[in-house]
C-alpha cells in the first residue's frame, strides 16, 4: 500500500481541534481588517493541501466598489506562499461569528478548492458543491477547448 502523506491527512475532515484553530486564525486576522467605511470587519482562514494555514482580511477603499473581501487576501496569500489547493475554509465577522462568503467569493473559493473544499457555514460544515451548486468553473473552459480541438481534428 502507498505511504500515507501529509496531503492525504489534510484531505480528511479536520477534527474539532483543527477547525477550532482555523476559526481562531480567522478571528485573529479579522482584527487587522481595514474597514473604515462599512465598519464590518471580516477575517478568513483556510488550510491548503500541504497543511499550511492561509489567511486574509477585508480591505476597503474610498472608492467603495474597489473593496477587497477577506477571501481575496486569502487567495493571494495562498499563491504568494507557494500555491496549492484549499481544503478547509472559514470566515468570521467582527464578533468572531461564522459568516457565509459572499456570492463573488464563493466563486473565488471554488476556483482554488473545487467541489470538495469544506466550508464551515452558518449551518455546519458543507462541501463547496453545496455552497455553490452547479458552479461554473475551469472545467467549463476546458470542455469548450476540447470541443474545438475535436472539431478541428474532424476537418483534418
Ligand atoms: N466582506 C468580506 O470580506 N467577505 C465576504 O464574504 C462578505 C463581505 C466584506 C466586504 C466589505 O468590506 C464588508 O465585508 C461589508 O460588506
TrEMBL record:
<keyword id="KW-0378">Hydrolase</keyword>
<dbReference type="InterPro" id="IPR002125">
    <property type="entry name" value="CMP_dCMP_dom"/>
</dbReference>
<dbReference type="InterPro" id="IPR006262">
    <property type="entry name" value="Cyt_deam_tetra"/>
</dbReference>
<comment type="similarity">
    <text>Belongs to the cytidine and deoxycytidylate deaminase family.</text>
</comment>
<protein>
    <recommendedName>
        <fullName>Cytidine deaminase</fullName>
        <ecNumber>3.5.4.5</ecNumber>
    </recommendedName>
</protein>
<dbReference type="InterPro" id="IPR016193">
    <property type="entry name" value="Cytidine_deaminase-like"/>
</dbReference>
<dbReference type="InterPro" id="IPR050202">
    <property type="entry name" value="Cyt/Deoxycyt_deaminase"/>
</dbReference>
<feature type="domain" description="CMP/dCMP-type deaminase">
    <location>
        <begin position="17"/>
        <end position="139"/>
    </location>
</feature>
<dbReference type="Pfam" id="PF00383">
    <property type="entry name" value="dCMP_cyt_deam_1"/>
</dbReference>
<comment type="function">
    <text>This enzyme scavenges exogenous and endogenous cytidine and 2'-deoxycytidine for UMP synthesis.</text>
</comment>
<dbReference type="GO" id="GO:0004126">
    <property type="term" value="F:cytidine deaminase activity"/>
</dbReference>
<keyword id="KW-0862">Zinc</keyword>
<keyword id="KW-0479">Metal-binding</keyword>
Amino acid at each position: 500500500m502507498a505511504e500515507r502523506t501529509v496531503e492525504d491527512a489534510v484531505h480528511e475532515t479536520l477534527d474539532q481541534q483543527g477547525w477550532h484553530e482555523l476559526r481562531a486564525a480567522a478571528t485573529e486576522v479579522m482584527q487587522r481588517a481595514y474597514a473604515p467605511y462599512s465598519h464590518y470587519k471580516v477575517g478568513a482562514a483556510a488550510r491548503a493541501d500541504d497543511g499550511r494555514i492561509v489567511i486574509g482580511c477585508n480591505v476597503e477603499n474610498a472608492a467603495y466598489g474597489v473593496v477587497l473581501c477577506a477571501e481575496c487576501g486569502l487567495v493571494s496569500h495562498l499563491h504568494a506562499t507557494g500555491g496549492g489547493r484549499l481544503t478547509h475554509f472559514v470566515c468570521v465577522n467582527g464578533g468572531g461569528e461564522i459568516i457565509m462568503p459572499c456570492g463573488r467569493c464563493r466563486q473565488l473559493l471554488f476556483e482554488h478548492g473545487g467541489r470538495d473544499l469544506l466550508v464551515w457555514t452558518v449551518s455546519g460544515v458543507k462541501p463547496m458543491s453545496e455552497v455553490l451548486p452547479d458552479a461554473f468553473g475551469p472545467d467549463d473552459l476546458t470542455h469548450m477547448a476540447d470541443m474545438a480541438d475535436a472539431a478541428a481534428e474532424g476537418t483534418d
